[in-house]
Batch of 2 targets.
Target 1
Amino acid sequence: MVDFGICDSPVIANMPELGDKCNAETLTLQDMASASMGMHPDVPYAWIQSKRDIVQEAYYDAIGLTMEEEIDVIDDEIFFLKVNGVFADYVKDHKNAVTYMVSSLMHTYTGLPIVYHATADGALGGGKGETMLEWLSRFPLGKNETVDSVCDGDVIPMSEHPKVYTKYCAEEVVQSYTQQ
């Protein structure tokens, strides 16, 4: 990022904590998202994420093959743990982070017809609960309106995760946001 001048861009340069990390070449997308959530606590940050994303897993594996040090290919359990880790950090630090977790291997939803039918228990829908489109249509929230994180499975601590990736929701990630 340093070589491309990103560290001197107004978005980064106006936030000293990001500028320092950028110049030290340790800045991550998660750092930038977290800083943005902190700057805009009255704006809900909503993510749609598959519990298993075959495209993200393939990119991880492909990049791993180009590394000097050997890294293991990512499996479903580790992928979902890493996803939960990212979102748990957001939720820990920000009350305005919510997720719609889908038990699926899809990479994207909103540009495809499945957005009309997907539910938390699968990309093809037919499950219980709010569809992805219903959840998305709630944004922007009106004053005192609440949106909940959506996930298919029992809500348990990440430390107690089962070996089957679709069968739980991390309690560290599940939260509600009420618009003030």
Target 2
Amino acid sequence: MTEESFQSSNDSDTSVYLLIEVKEILHREMYEAYTRQAKPIIISYGGEYVVTSDNLIPLSGEWDTKRVVLIRFQSLNDLRVCFDSEEYREIAHLRENSVMGKAIIIA
């Protein structure tokens, strides 16, 4: 999906979700410091934690995921403003250096 089609498929009244898949925690203490600091920042920008879980039970296929996090935002713009904010950028290195994973926006 191109950026243009992504934007047109998500009007301002539709919630978007950020799905984070943590494959491996490299530095637990650093990751815990990140999550403690990230949560209030994300909430302050309107993010709502829908689920955070380490208790994953594969239904089909092979999974090696250690944790999933699902965060809801009112709009794609709210999500982008949050993760582009100075507050978040100041702690992003903690996540980048403590876990292996990936994230996707669901619109």
